[in-house]
């Protein structure tokens, strides 16, 4: 990430539908499985729920018990994925401190650029405590 201003109070809340696949979990390589995934950035956590379609009215806690999986971004890294990670356009590679790596992608470059900014701000703001 390029360094971004550290505003202690910056609200890092964002949600939307992205294409997501995990590629590594706890240091172990996984087979890619791209899925359209409802994604919520909440504080230093990134929460995912598959199979929610593209409806944006759905929220965690409203008729849904919990996200399918989540990652803690504290101490993690965010970067644009290199060509060898995926043939898709606009792919962000996220690495967590716990050894999970995932790719998130959107066909819409405005959408993915907003996510890139928000995720960078999150990792820059929430240093590992
Ligand atoms: O990095 P890879 O292995 O080329 O990733 C592709 C595969 O996961 C492929 O599925 P199969 O497991 O059936 O081969 C996916 O359909 C592709 O989308 C993956 O590549 P991209 O470049 O789209 O991330």
UniProtKB/TrEMBL annotation:
Question: Which part of the chain is the PH domain?
Answer: 22-124
- State the superkingdom: Eukaryota
Would you tell me the protein name for this molecule? Rho GTPase activating protein 12
Q: Which organism is it from?
A: Coilia grayii
């Amino acid at each position: 990430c390029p360094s971004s201003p550290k505003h202690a109070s910056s609200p890092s809340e964002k949600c939307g539908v992205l294409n997501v696949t995990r590629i590594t979990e706890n240091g172990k390589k996984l087979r890619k499985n791209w899925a359209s995934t409802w994604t919520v950035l909440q504080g230093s956590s990134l929460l995912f729920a598959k199979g929610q379609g593209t409806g944006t009215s759905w929220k965690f806690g409203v008729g849904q018990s919990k996200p399918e999986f989540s990652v803690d971004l504290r101490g993690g890294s965010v970067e644009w994925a290199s060509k060898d990670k995926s043939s898709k356009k606009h792919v962000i590679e996220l690495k967590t401190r716990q050894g999970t790596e995932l790719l998130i992608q959107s066909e819409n470059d405005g959408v993915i650029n907003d996510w890139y900014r928000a995720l960078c701000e999150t990792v820059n703001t929430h240093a590992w405590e």
